[in-house]
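Lesson 9: reading folded outputs for more than one chain in a single document. The general rule is that every protein is listed as its sequence immediately followed by its structure tokens, and records are never interleaved. Here is the first one.
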Amino acid sequence: MDTHDISAPSRAQSWHTADKHPKQRHPRSGHPGVGLTHDNARHTARFTVIGNHLAQHPELSALAIGLGVHIQSLPAGARVDIKTLAARFPEGTTRIAAALRELETHGYLRRERHRIPDGRIVTRTTSCNQPGHRGETAPAHAPATPKKPKQRTPRKPLPAVPSPAYPAPALLQAATDLLAGLRRHHPDLLLSACDTAHLAPGVAAWLERDIGPTAVRHALTADLPPEGVRRPAALLAHRLAAQLPPPPPFRAPAPPPAVRQPLQNCDGCERAFRAPAPGLCHDCRTDLPEAA
């Protein structure tokens, strides 16, 4: 990645003569002192060759260009995850993550996830100083070649999610509100309306199984990759399907409580007895068979 070139001619030589003649007119503007001039010194150690296709990229943001230059200047094995870069630069993790995605979109970075022998999943980052030349090392003096237009690969469909047995509108609305609020807990979990509609039935299936919103939110946001989430909707869909809890155990409905009649005073003997309305107690009633 670092290229030491002590034989490269200095571009500053063409401007040294202009320093000796301060009244010399700029070759393009026709006015003295107009436009950029360079006061260059020849590098003989600790320098990196950066292509103008990166330094003057028409679509990358200034932060993305700066990060791209910084990453290309680092030695192999250096850490370039979001937290490390956020600790190095004043920008926060959200802006750093967005700039890395820009570089990845335009081919200056490749981030691939691998499972290491102890079972953990790590992300390996590859810096590309010539997008489109995978696995090749361009010579330091290679002439600039026209950049071929990149074709975007079609988006992979999202994994299927479970569905609730009774998709009531209130249940789906609660699931949609939970998904829309995930970005307040983790900035990378910003979902589009289309992705939210795809994931809402899966969240509703969890809520239907007596899993509270707090527990669902924890299951979806716990142990996220430290380097950021590239496809948040795909990650959430996988977790909703793979970690779906079983239905709650069946509980037979409890029998209704026994009706306890209020106390009444017998109209005959004035003894207390339980009955729905005032009247005679069992002993004073003459209409019963045993009283005949």
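And here is the second record, again sequence then tokens.
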Amino acid sequence: MEELPQQLRLVLVLRHFSGITSCQEIAAACEIPVSTMRLNQAKGKMAGLLLSAATQAHSDAFVLTEESRHEAVATLEVSERGVLPQEILELWPAETEMIGELGKPGERVHPVPVMRRILSAGVRQRVQKLQVVFPDTAH
């Protein structure tokens, strides 16, 4: 936020961190005409700054995410054959329990039998690559 000019920073703060939501109210609070408020420009600059920060400061997170994705794909490929890899079996100790829709209401179940039951029922999963799309904020 500090990299944005003060007026753009103020417009964004008012829009996203106050109860003020309309362009007219934001312009009045900034004591500027609505026509010079430049909310879209502020959003566009902020999106660019966030994207830049994400790729520069968090490249390690990107690497970890990609490694995790490759692991998930490999695991699903093996599970397609009806087998759970040893690595999956070792993730959860015997006392691990899941609560929720995988068992009967209120029942606590271990994840591995649930996964086996799901596989034997013919359910298959696939990993989708996350795609981030930023809307055109140039206008």
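What the second record shows: The mean pLDDT is 75.
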